[in-house]
Structures are given as C-alpha cells and as structure tokens.
Design brief:
alpha/beta, Thrombin, subunit H, 2 domains, 9-stranded mixed β-sheet
C-alpha cells in the first residue's frame, strides 16, 4: 500500500514551512450555508499554461470539459457520526464522533470529554438504543469502542446512526442548516466518511447528465474521508507532518475507463482532493491506475509529481491545511496564494459550502 511519505517523484522539499501556506481570510467570507442551487456557486477557472484566471459559475464547468475526458468522483457517503449519550449508571454526559470502522461494530472514536471514557467504561447512547464499551486508547487519544444493539431489531449500526446520529458539520459552520442533505453529494453511495468530499457538492444530477451527453465519462472511486485530512498541521516543517490513513477503493471498471481514455488523449479531471489522492495512491510511476483497495496516508505537497491527475476541481481551503498544500503542488504555492488573494478581493465564498476552483 502507498506510503504517505514515499515521495518517489518529488524534489527535496525539507525546507518547506507550514507558515508558508498562511493567508488572511475575512471571517465573513466563510460560507455558512450552501448556494441556493448546487451548481449556482461561483467558479474560478485557472489555466496553468497561460496563467489566466476567469470568473464563472459552476454550471459553466461543462464548457471546460472535452469529449473523451474522464470526470473522477468520490462516491463515499457521510455518515451521521455524531452521537450523544452518557456514562452508564452515571449522570455524566459524553459526545462521540465516529472516525473509522476498525471491524464490524468496533470504531475508532473521538470522545469529549475524554476523561470520561477510560478503558472498560460503558456508555449509553440514544436513550439506550445503542451501548458501547471502551476497549482501548490510541496513541493520539482516540478511543476504540465496541458497540452493541438489538440485532433482531436493527440490521446494522448504520441503521441506528440514521436514527440517533447527526451529520458532523465542520466547526467553522456555526449557523443552523435548513437542508440536512446539502452536506452530501448527489452521487454519495458508500457509507463511511465523517466529512464530505466538498468539491462534489456543486454537482446536480442534471449537470452530470449534460456532462455525460458531451462525451465525458463520469467514473466513481471511493475514499472514506476521515478527520485526518482536515487536522491542522502542527509541525513547523511540512515534511514532518504525518497523515492519518484513510480507506480507499478503485474498482476494475473505473480503472479500465480511466486508463483507456487517458491513453486515447483524454484528460483525467479529479473532483476534489480526495479523488485526487485516491488516483495518486492507485497509480504506478507510469500513470496507470490499478484496481485496488486499502489504506492510504499519501501526503501531497509541492515537489510531488502527479501521475494520474490532469485537471482538478476543488474548493477554497483553510490556511496552512494539507488540502491547500496539495492544490499548491498542482500549480505552485505562489500562484495559488495569488489566486486566493484575488478570490478574497472578489468576495468568493470559502471552505465546505463555498465556491469552487477549476485548475487545468
């Protein structure tokens, strides 16, 4: 499986500083709600060859896609991973955030307050519908919890989550939401993410159909987005940051279409950093994408040579984030930060519910 720090195609970038990826963002530009219509968001279009920047709307993305291209989407689905309960037999409340499934009904979990979740402690959630026991504590303080429920009444844990859980919105979204389903792509299928692959939030079924009619293949891959993707980079030197691993999968059909179309001259257009990281994890040094599944901790920052991504659709990311570093690797730090400065001046909307960028 790929190693997050195997930068086989990179230059020596040990001097890159996390602070090099800081930029000033007025708080009012952090989008608190999605656009009224998914594809009505603004779209900044960047041409890496000419350096030109255009200001469009997301529905115009079809004008920049060519017959023979492949649009690669991440069809992972956000689960209602936020749970509330108490320590069994005590008047002590706890909040849980399910991070990743280790094995059936056993999850790595973030618990607040952590001091109430010692090993062996039992928890009651959803007024007794779900119970959990803390089995162990990971090196970074997360809890491994085994859950129990009435298996005669519920077919699996996901059915219970749909009943008692909440979708965990990012902490910078502080206002109540009117539509629960807007933090989910229209093509979400496989449950397992704790955060949305947000570049895909802009697509509507109608827009995807128009894209297909133009001769562009829409091909799914899957990466279950974990909190590790969004955790702050605390190391001063970027090279010292270690990504948490996430589960990904590329099936035979998707790999075949991607490789055939690229060999015929089509571009691979990645929808979001998660699709990009999946493609780069599943490709060899010749850019051939292989059908595979497993864990990836790939960390892409400037100096990385992209193997299987020709164009990128992405949102505007947090300062000093691994996502901003990936986008900077796709063009350059200076150019991306310059584009972000323009986006601030033009009052683009930032982060998960914000506007989009297309880099070709």
């Amino acid at each position: 499986m790929p190693d997050g720090h195997l930068m086989e195609n990179s230059k020596d970038k040990k001097g890159l500083l996390t602070s090099d990826y800081y930029y000033e963002l007025p708080p009012e530009l952090i989008a608190q709600h999605p656009a009224e219509r998914r594809d009505a968001s603004r779209l900044m279009v960047i041409n890496r060859t000419s350096g030109s920047i255009e200001h469009r709307h997301f529905s115009d993305i079809i004008e920049y896609l060519n017959p023979g291209d492949v649009l690669v989407i991440n069809n992972s689905k956000v689960i209602p991973a936020r749970l509330f309960g108490c320590v069994s037999g005590r008047d002590a409340s706890v909040e849980l955030l399910l991070l990743r499934e280790r094995e059936p009904d056993t999850w790595e979990t973030l618990v607040k307050p952590g001091k109430r979740a010692r090993i062996g402690m039992k928890l009651t959630l959803g007024e007794g519908i779900l119970c959990g026991e803390v089995l162990s504590i990971t090196d970074d303080g997360n809890r491994i919890i085994r859950f129990e429920y009435d298996k005669n009444k519920y077919k699996n844990l996901y059915e219970i989550l749909d009943k008692i859980g909440l979708v965990p919105l990012p902490p910078y979204i502080t206002e109540p939401q009117k539509e629960e389903g807007r933090y989910q792509t229209v093509y979400a299928r496989y449950e397992g993410s704790v955060a949305a692959p947000t570049a895909g939030l802009h697509f509507t079924p109608e827009l995807l159909e128009k894209i297909r009619e133009k001769g562009v293949a829409v091909v799914p891959v899957m990466l279950h987005v974990g909190l590790g993707t969004f955790r702050p980079v605390k190391e001063k030197l970027i090279v010292k940051h270690i990504m948490h691993t996430e589960y990904f999968s590329v099936n035979e059909e998707s790999a075949r279409i991607i490789n055939e179309r690229r060999a015929a001259g089509g571009r691979i257009v990645s929808v979001g950093t998660t699709s990009c990281r999946t493609l780069e994890s599943a490709s060899d040094s010749n850019g051939v994408v292989h059908a595979m599944s497993g864990e990836t901790g790939i960390f892409i920052y400037p100096g990385y040579k992209f193997k299987a991504t020709d164009a990128l659709i992405t949102n505007f990311h947090l300062p000093e984030s691994t996502l901003l570093m990936l986008v900077s690797a796709f063009w350059s730090r200076e150019e991306i930060l310059g584009a972000y400065e323009i986006a601030v001046k033009e009052k683009y909307r930032f982060f998960s519910f914000g506007d989009a960028m297309f880099i070709q």
